[in-house]
Amino acid sequence: CYDKAIELDGVSFEPYLLRAVLHLKRGALEPAKADLRSALFLQPRCWAAEYLLAGVAAREGRDSEQLAALS
Questions:
Q1: Which conformational region is residue 27 in: left (phi greater than 0), alpha (psi within -120 to 50 degrees), or beta?
Q2: 22-59 per-position pLDDT tens digit
Q3: SS3 (DSSP) at 60
Q4: How many Cβ atoms sit within 10 Å of the Cβ of residue 51?
Q5: Please, are residues 21 and 27 in contact by the beta-carbon 8 Å criterion?
Q6: Going along 1-71, which residue ranges are E strands?
Q7: Full-prediction pTM beyond 0.85?
Q8: Is 9 helix (H, G, I), strand (E, B) or coil?
Q9: What are the CA-CA distances from residue 68 to residues 4, 21, 62, 65 (Å)?
Q10: In whole angstroms, what is the distance from residue 52 CA to residue 37 CA?
Q11: Is 7 exposed, middle or buried (0-12, 13-18, 19+ CB in 10 A)?
């Protein structure tokens, strides 16, 4: 359903953010990161995407990126 929403309206950040959450729940970090970055491109101060991206960086052991995502 998120794919269809992105296809219909590719300029809204919400479908990217929600699809990223789905990827995270499935443990698919790479697609989650891509969707979170897309959400942040469309809505640069989306705190939820920043927070989730920092969580991905923490899972991958990238502390400097984790801090950068939160600043």
A1: left
A2: 999 999 999 999 999 999 999 999 999 999 999 998 88
A3: coil
A4: 12
A5: no
A6: none
A7: no
A8: coil
A9: 31, 20, 10, 5
A10: 10
A11: exposed
| Residue recorded with tokens 């998120």 | 2
Dihedral (CA of 34, 35, 41, 46) sign? negative
| Encoded amino acid at 60, one letter | E
Listed as own residue / partner, the contacts of 41-45 with beta carbons closer than 8 Å and 24 or more positions apart are 42/11, 42/12, 42/13, 42/16, 43/13
Q: Considering only CA atoms, which of 27, 38, 29, 18 is closest in space to residue 56?
A: 29
- The structure tokens listed for 30 are 């790479």
- Residue 21's pLDDT band, with cuts at 50, 70 and 90, is very high
